[in-house]
Design brief:
alpha+beta, 5-stranded mixed β-sheet, 19% strand
Amino acid sequence: MNDLQSVLHPAGADAAIIHQFTWVLFIGGTLIFVFVMALLALAMRRQARPVRPGIWLFGAGIAFPVVVLTALLAWSTWRSAQLAEQTSHKAMSISVTGKMWWWEVRYRDPASNREIITANEIHIPVGEPVYLGMTASDVIHSLWVPALAGKRDMIPGRVTGLTLRADKPGVYRGQCAEYCGEQHARMAFHVIALPRAEFDAWLARRAQPALPADTTVLQRGRDAFLAQQCQACHTIRGVTDVPPFSQQERIADTSRLGPDLTHVGSRREIAAGTLRNHRGTLAGWIADPQAIKPGVFMPPTPDLDGETLRAMATYLEHLK
């Protein structure tokens, strides 16, 4: 698998059309530029024969641009009509909310009809159109996966849509394409396209609660997570939704300041594409997220001793 973020490597029908647009316009513009420069060179030759003004005016000023622009308009209109229709009908739907500076992703479990919430990764089945219903919770963001489709703005209070379809399995990097604040450049995500059977298995696993803390180290990490009141912003299903933490979960449901961490250990990266996900980066992030991504809402935890910090990172890495 690769994680290309490039319009020059299309992996979906819409991206292929956009890729074709890019090359046709680039090559066409180059040919027109060369043609105009050749005419200029001829006109500057001292021995060049004079040309009647009517030929220049009609040929280069009217006929040439009319023919070229009409051809481009007709071709682009025909190809644009082949882009996927932005509709939630007859397609799998996923909800995506842009936040400063991460992505909340919601699925509907077909078995239980329960909502599954994750972050910074959008898993889709290969070869099937997937409709993304998108909005933002704070400022305008824009979701763009160059290898799969064009970009679409995400506006607070309004739902916009984008259809993705990956023709082959892979990991495709996406990026916020609308400047949204201090950490806009570190607001990335990945679209992971899986064969249908693997996608169904992944979704079924995500519907399950978090793995139990069945060792002393994991229990210490879980207890430290709760003692630090991390559940005020983060949810771990099976941990923060049982007494006596039901109240904290209710608070988290209304605020949703941070990502759902129920299966955080299975994600490729943390902090929206900023760091690879493993025990060391998790510990660094918990200790001082402001040093890694200044401006995020998560505060540092200077009071944690090293052993407790490592236990908490081990516990989060264990949540797969």
